């Protein structure tokens, strides 16, 4: 019998418009296309890649119409993937480096030879579908056949960007964050309005920028959680992989950089004991206080724990993240945190269009029993600090993406979509859960087992795209 390790095997099939058999009933109102992104191949010319984040991007497309699902998959035809097809690891990935010269490492540190292996998520920009990662090189693709249309570089003075930007539905603009190395290192906050050019909001100089995967946004502020996992241009010149160029400083605090979105001023820098995070959940304002919810880890050890050697073990040792809320007082610049849900929880999602920038009630995420890997889903009621759980033996669900029911009144009136691995069947399936009742209402099996993915976006008819998370 297979186990979760099946989700970390390389995949070599591409599919085009395969009709899936649906068990149960998909709601008639659920109409649109779910795009998922994540790694699909983990070796180059017999050489194993080192980290889960390094695998070459495999786009997955699920069209949902009138209760039926149609599935396609295709490798992202990036420069990095084409080189790998010829047995060459040309670009440095998150945890794996090619054999570079000193000059190559210098160019990479300054952003000149960045990978376009855009395997983290899918975003919508300027009317295009784009695969993105943590470099400035987005890859546009055809939403129908998933073929590549070309590169789209972020027009900001940054070495790299985060994949988890935010959409402000009132201002009708995306807000995102980049990291700058080399001359004047630090962070670059910028906006990308629907009807105008990209505009820099702030450049915050830091000699040793932190690794930043996401950030928080409120009506008036952007909040960067600057944990003590830091790097420098000098360390990036070493022969080590990108992830290993960062160092954890346990004696340093985690700092919240609160930036006014209107003028770029850093208005507060409250600190808390050291904590690491990949993913923020939500943030909102209440008077002179900000509330920032995120998945917190006690230190950076989650980063090396996602190495393939660990994840491919029968009982991987993966640190547990908890859902934590920080209250930031802008007057006193003091911060305090409390646990909303002990977890383990990761890949947190909400009813994004309803909750983003505002107080919310429900957070959904993936959980893990001791000694296993992503074997359950959680629905956390943050108002009552309670949790509901969905689990089934042999099922390893991925990130749950919330899709609201048109015209629904309640925050949890909708469905959750999760691409899961069924180890008994040795193939993947799309789970459809009623979000309010937190019960499965349908599933559709794929003809094979996909590697575990990361994030995605749902494109509903007549609505703005729904990202899975901030």
TrEMBL record:
- Any idea which UniProt keywords this protein has? Iron, Metal-binding, Oxidoreductase
Q: Which GO terms describe its molecular function?
A: carotenoid dioxygenase activity; metal ion binding
**Claim: rRNA processing is one of the keywords in the record:** no
Could you provide one GO biological process annotation from this protein's UniProt record?
carotene catabolic process
The record's section on Pfam families has: RPE65
Needed co-factor(s) = Fe(2+)
Q: Which family does it belong to?
A: Belongs to the carotenoid oxygenase family.
Spell out the protein name for this chain: Retinal pigment epithelial membrane protein
The beginning of the lineage is: Archaea, Methanobacteriati, Methanobacteriota, Stenosarchaea group, Halobacteria
């Amino acid at each position: 019998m297979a186990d979760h390790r099946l989700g970390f095997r390389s995949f070599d099939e591409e599919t085009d418009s395969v009709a899936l058999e649906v068990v149960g009933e998909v709601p008639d109102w659920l109409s649109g296309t779910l795009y998922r992104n994540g790694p699909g191949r983990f070796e180059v010319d017999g050489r194993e890649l080192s980290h889960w984040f390094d695998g070459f991007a495999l786009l997955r497309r699920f069209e949902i119409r009138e209760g039926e699902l149609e599935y396609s998959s295709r490798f992202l035809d990036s420069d990095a993937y084409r080189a790998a097809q010829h047995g060459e690891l040309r670009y440095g990935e998150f945890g794996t480096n090619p054999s570079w010269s000193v000059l190559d490492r210098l160019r990479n540190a300054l952003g000149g030879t960045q990978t376009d292996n855009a395997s983290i998520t899918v975003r919508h920009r300027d009317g295009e579908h784009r695969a993105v990662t943590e470099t400035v090189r987005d890859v546009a693709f055809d939403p129908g056949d998933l073929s590549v249309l070309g590169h789209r570089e972020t027009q900001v003075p940054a070495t790299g960007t985060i994949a988890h930007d935010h959409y402000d539905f009132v201002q009708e603009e995306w807000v995102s964050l980049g990291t700058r190395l080399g001359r004047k290192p630090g962070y670059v906050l910028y906006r990308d309005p629907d009807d105008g050019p990209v505009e820099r909001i702030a450049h915050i100089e830091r000699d040793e920028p932190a690794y930043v995967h996401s950030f928080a946004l409120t009506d008036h502020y952007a909040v960067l959680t600057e944990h003590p996992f830091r790097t420098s241009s000098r360390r990036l010149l070493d022969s080590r992989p990108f992830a290993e160029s960062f160092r954890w400083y346990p004696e340093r605090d985690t700092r919240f950089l609160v930036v006014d979105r209107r003028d770029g001023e850093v208005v507060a820098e409250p600190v808390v004991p050291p904590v690491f995070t990949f993913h923020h959940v939500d943030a909102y304002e209440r008077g002179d206080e900000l509330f920032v919810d995120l998945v917190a880890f006690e230190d950076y050890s989650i980063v090396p724990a996602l190495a393939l050697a660990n994840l491919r073990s029968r009982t991987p040792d993966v640190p547990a993240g908890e859902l934590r809320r920080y209250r930031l007082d802008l007057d006193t610049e003091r911060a305090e945190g409390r646990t909303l849900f002990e977890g383990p929880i990761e890949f947190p999602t909400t009813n994004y269009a309803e909750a983003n920038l505002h107080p919310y009630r429900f957070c959904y995420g993936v959980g893990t029993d001791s000694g296993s890997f992503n074997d359950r889903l959680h629905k956390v009621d943050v108002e009552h600090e309670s949790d509901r759980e969905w689990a089934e033996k042999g099922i390893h669900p991925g990130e749950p993406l919330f899709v609201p029911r048109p015209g629904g009144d309640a925050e949890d009136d909708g469905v959750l979509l999760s691409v899961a691995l069924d180890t008994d069947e040795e193939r993947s399936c799309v789970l459809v859960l009623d979000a309010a009742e937190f019960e499965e209402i349908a599933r559709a099996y794929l003809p094979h087992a996909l590697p575990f993915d990361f994030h995605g976006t749902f494109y509903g008819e007549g609505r703005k795209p729904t990202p899975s998370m901030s």
